[in-house]
Every structure is written in structure tokens, then in C-alpha cells.
Amino acid sequence: MPIALTVMAGAAMLKSGEEPESLWTPLSAVFMSLSALTLGGSGLFAVAAMDKVLKERAEEVDAIPDDEEVLAYETELLAKQASRREALSWEGLSTAWRGVLITSVLLVDVSAWIFQASSECFHDVVLTTDVSAPPLSGNVFNVVRPHGWVGVGCQGAGWLCYGVFSLHISRKIKAASQAVVPL
Asked: Which of 18, 32, 91, 121 has the fewest Cβ atoms within 10 angstroms?
């Protein structure tokens, strides 16, 4: 059922792109909503079923011996998580790295405000828009208008700052984990 509703939602979205003023437009919204509900409901049902089995057969599950390799992996993972928490603590960051992280967040927020405040960021296109016709005229990047490029630039710069920060943190964690002598 969830798959059928998802396929119907996609088909209705395709038809609504071809005929925007038709009945397909509201039908696509209905099918998307039903699809989301059934997919979410299926996930919740699966979690409830797993929880029921774990409660009803707890003794049987607890009787299964732990795998030594898994225990070693989990111990190593806990040590890495502790190193990561320490490396990511605000107090453990220098002023420069705090600035990089704050700059990243501010740039991404500015781009979100640009996209939200201006309806002139992107041309309106749908799934069935002819790429060779205006406004794209054979170039898919023509979908972005000048205001949009400012927002995209801020978004990209924010991601770049975060990427540099993440690289620094990864190296810091790696150095900390190498300094720890295994037992």
C-alpha cells in the first residue's frame, strides 16, 4: 500500500506539471499526504512490533551471548565518542575556530533569509519544463536569478566554513584517539 500511494503521488505530480490547472494538482497533494501517512505509520508499526517482541521474549534475547568483536567495537566506539564530545565542546575550541563555526551558521542563515524574503531568487519550473526553452534556454543554471546567486553564494560559503571546521575537528579527534594507548 505505501509503495502504491508513493507511485500514485509521483504520477499525479508529473501530470500536474503537464496540466497545472487540472484536477491532478490537488490530487498530487492528497496522494503525497496519504503516502507520508502510510510510510510513517508503517515505520511506527514496525517499531511497535519490535518493542513487543523484545518485551515478550526478553529472557530469550538476554540469553544470547555477546559477541567479543562487537563488544570490542562498542568499547572503541565509546572512546571515540568521548573524544568527539571533548573536541566539540565549546570551551575546547579556540576563538578562531569558534569564529569559523559562527560564520558558517550566519552565512547559512543569511542565505535562508534571502531565499525566504525574495521571490525573485529562482525561475518557476516544473518537472516537465522544456530545458531548451526560456527561461532555461539550454542551461539548467539559468533557473537561478541574480538574487538567488547571492543566496547560493552565502550557502556555499557557509558549507565551506563548516567543511573546514569539520576537517579540523576530525583531525583533532584522530590525534586524540592515537594518543590513547589501547589496553
From this structure: 91
